[in-house]
Amino acid sequence: MSQGNSCKCGEHRKPASERRWVVLQRNGNASAFNGYRWTYSDYSCIQCHACGTVWRTKADYVTSLKDGTNVYDLPADQHPNPMAKHATVKMGEYTVPLIGVPPTATTEKCSQCGEARHLSELSLDERGHPVCATCRDK
Question: Where do the structural domains in the chain lie, given as residue ranges?
Answer without folding.
Answer: 2-78, 82-136
